Design the sequence.
């Protein structure tokens, strides 16, 4: 019986080569696209899963005055461990850029973390050398990854070797106490070097203040703690009470325990977070896109199978006449669908291997396809099984319901399958039109982000990482003299943080009339007198810093958002006393708001303080020959700082990286929109061929009666065009709702233009007509004698 079913299925595939090929290619492409997306989704959802205690680890995030942030007060960790029995351990992290030297070689480390001594007991980052229990207990110790060990020491033993921090031979000489395995790509913390928190406290002159929100804090709950919504809410209330006890001026302050598994995908709303976080909404969107593409491919199969049913009606009737029962017919046709599905799976796997390198490049991933993995094999087989069952179920039950007596008499058994096919075509093109509209709006929003006035001139701003404070201060006059004397350098400034990387904030901001219980977190940046001119920032009121005013080293600037927070006019604010973290001075100017974070967020209050030294030198370069300016700056830099690495970047490129997930989303939408249309058109091509094949005598009669080729093409195409119009009517409101929700995730975004919906509908109609027209023109040009020769 099974052998007979298999033979029948194979013969049917061979007999209808064209339609079988369309089905296999369509289903294979749909599977390949869907599986690639699911691999990406799996990778995004797999972040931090390597931690053995992942279900017991939470990050503590703050929400002060309805401003959520990833950082909490510096002393919070110790207080939680001491006062909450449910907390087994608490550990802190601070991400930073540092320069390490060995001999005469220096390297900038962009992925360095200051951590507490129990960091490796909370997180699972194994050591290949050293003792995980003691490696971070040495105040002058440092841990490095295998990659960093190879960079600094080659093939030599790394443990026990010395590294210098910031070229300071006396106070920052560190000894390597262990070597870590390279950090997994799916870790939300990316680092090559771990330093003890004692070094951080020494560098920052840490005073134990609860007003400095500067550290990421993680807690590991006791093994007996049962995490429920109620138990977590109670703990969060206790954390807020601890904060209130130590810093009783906080208002609307609450703390949230964020599960470690949620950190990568559920942190987009948080200020001052580590770089490289994902977006849970995009994971949901692309999961839906994967399902929709697979649905489109399954619709092709269902449409072609039902359209071919009239050719197999007599076969079914004959089988029933000689005793076949309904379930046997159902098994036969579902078996055929499964056979085709598994052939398509083989095609899909081949396509995945071919497309995976390009997909990884597009999505900035390093996903691999391991067919020896049992879970991977099970997942692929499950997708093929579900696709076969979904695609083959309706044709199987439809064909098995034929009445043999009517079929064998030659009566047509169309039933309702024509209406179903039309409905499925409408569904296909509705999905495709939604994806087209989404692609256009994503592109427009990305263009808006790229071209939007962010409050300063981001173009041609070259930045260089500077040496430690001592070296910079001692050589600052020589540096400035060299920069001033070079014709390629039109302006420069020294700042302590890049505007795109403000990772610290403070509640220690005071001004006359400030409510005692208002402790909003203010990000702050240190600049010199050249900042406003170099960055082309606009002053709204007052003045900027100037060397003509020696007292400016104690004065402050704020942005418009800060002025709004203070609820006073600029004229009143200028000249008033102002304080930041104990430093008191005068507010001398208001700058126009400029974006120092992604446009998903509104611009927050910013305090700008004066600083003669900083972490970065920023140079305004001429647009004509930037490479020449880079080379000139490198020569100047290396003449003054012989042993310090010359590392540079561009502000506009850093800003673009803030929207990396949106850029990837746009590229992926481009690709998958095109593929969804292609798969839809494959099915439409096959369906048009079958429809025209059934109407071949009608076409012959029309030609004999004098119909022209354009008239015949119009008659054949108009029914399909109606379906695309209906699909457009359905797709437009769905796309409008979806894209409005997506755009609301940006504080600054485009308005939805009506012409986009019209353009998408017209594009879909043009593509559909182009697909159908080939078959229609071919039929219209055929000799009617051939179609009318026999009855």
Sequence:
């Amino acid at each position: 019986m099974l052998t007979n079913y298999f033979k029948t299925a194979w013969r049917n595939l061979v007999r209808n080569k064209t339609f079988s090929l369309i089905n296999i290619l369509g289903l294979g492409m749909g599977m390949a696209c869907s599986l690639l997306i699911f691999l990406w989704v799996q990778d995004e959802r797999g972040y931090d899963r390597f931690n053995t205690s992942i279900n017991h680890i939470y990050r503590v995030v703050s929400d002060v005055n309805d401003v959520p942030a990833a950082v909490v007060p510096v002393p919070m960790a110790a207080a939680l461990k001491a006062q909450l029995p449910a907390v087994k351990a608490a550990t802190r992290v601070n991400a930073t850029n540092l320069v390490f030297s060995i001999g005469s070689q220096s390297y900038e480390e962009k992925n360095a973390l200051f951590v507490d001594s129990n960091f490796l007991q909370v997180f699972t980052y194994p050591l290949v050398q050293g003792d995980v229990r003691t490696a971070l207990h040495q105040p002058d110790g440092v841990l490095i990854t295998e990659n960093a060990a190879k960079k600094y020491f080659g093939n030599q033993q790394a443990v026990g070797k010395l590294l210098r921090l910031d070229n300071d031979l006396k106070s920052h000489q560190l000894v390597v106490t262990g070597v870590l395995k390279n950090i997994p790509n799916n870790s939300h913390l990316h680092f090559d070097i771990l330093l003890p928190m004692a070094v951080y406290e020494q560098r920052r002159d840490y005073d134990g203040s609860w007003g400095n929100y500067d550290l990421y804090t993680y807690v590991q709950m006791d093994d007996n703690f049962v995490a429920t919504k109620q138990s977590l809410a109670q703990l969060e209330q206790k954390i807020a009470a601890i904060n209130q006890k130590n810093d009783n001026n906080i208002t609307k302050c609450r703390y949230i325990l964020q599960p470690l598994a949620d950190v990568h995908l559920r942190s987009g709303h948080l200020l001052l977070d580590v770089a490289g976080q994902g977006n849970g909404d995009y994971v949901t969107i692309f999961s839906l896109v994967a399902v929709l593409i697979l649905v489109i491919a399954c619709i092709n199969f269902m449409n072609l199978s039902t359209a071919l049913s009239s050719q197999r009606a007599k076969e079914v009737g004959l089988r029933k006449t000689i005793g076949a029962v309904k379930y046997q017919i159902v098994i036969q046709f579902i078996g055929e669908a499964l056979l085709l599905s598994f052939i398509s799976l083989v095609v899909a796997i081949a396509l995945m291997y071919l497309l995976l390198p390009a997909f990884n490049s597009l999505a900035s991933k390093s996903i691999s396809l391991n067919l020896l993995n049992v879970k991977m094999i099970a997942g692929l087989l499950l997708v093929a099984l579900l696709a076969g069952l979904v695609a083959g179920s309706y044709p199987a039950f439809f064909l098995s319901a034929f009445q043999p007596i009517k079929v064998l008499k030659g009566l047509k058994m169309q039933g309702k399958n024509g209406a179903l096919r039309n409905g499925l075509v409408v569904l296909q093109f509705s999905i495709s039109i939604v994806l087209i509209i989404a692609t256009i709006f994503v592109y427009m929003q990305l263009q808006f982000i790229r071209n939007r006035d962010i409050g300063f001139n981001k173009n041609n701003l070259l930045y260089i990482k500077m040496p430690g404070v001592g070296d910079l201060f001692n050589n600052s006059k020589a540096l400035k003299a060299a920069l001033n004397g070079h014709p390629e350098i039109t302006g420069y400034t020294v700042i302590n943080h890049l505007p795109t990387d403000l990772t610290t904030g403070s509640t220690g901001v005071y001004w006359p009339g400030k409510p005692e219980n208002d402790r909003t977190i203010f990000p702050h940046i240190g600049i010199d007198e050249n900042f406003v001119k170099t960055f082309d920032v606009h002053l709204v009121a007052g003045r900027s810093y100037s060397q003509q005013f020696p007292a400016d080293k104690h004065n402050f600037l704020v942005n418009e958002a800060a002025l709004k927070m203070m609820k006073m006019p600029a004229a009143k604010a200028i000249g008033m006393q102002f304080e930041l973290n104990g430093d008191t001075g005068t507010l001398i100017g208001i700058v126009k708001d400029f974006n120092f974070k992604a446009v998903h967020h509104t611009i927050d209050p910013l305090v700008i303080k004066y600083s003669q030294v900083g972490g970065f030198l920023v140079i305004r370069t001429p647009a004509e020959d930037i490479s020449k300016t880079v080379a000139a700056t490198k020569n100047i830099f290396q003449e003054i700082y012989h042993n310090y690495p010359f590392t540079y970047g561009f502000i506009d490129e850093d800003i673009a990286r803030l929207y990396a997930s949106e850029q990837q989303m746009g590229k992926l939408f481009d690709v998958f929109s095109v593929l969804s249309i292609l798969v839809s058109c494959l099915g439409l091509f096959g369906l048009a061929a079958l429809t025209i094949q059934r109407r071949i005598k009608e076409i012959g009669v029309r030609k004999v009666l004098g119909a022209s080729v354009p008239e015949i093409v119009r008659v054949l195409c108009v029914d399909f065009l109606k379906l695309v119009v209906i699909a457009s009517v359905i797709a437009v409101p769905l796309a409008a709702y979806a894209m409005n929700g997506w755009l609301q995730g940006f504080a600054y975004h485009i308005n939805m233009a009506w012409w986009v919906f019209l353009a998408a509908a017209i594009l879909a109609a043009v593509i559909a007509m182009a697909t159908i027209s080939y078959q229609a023109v071919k039929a219209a040009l055929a000799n009617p004698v051939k179609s009318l020769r026999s009855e």
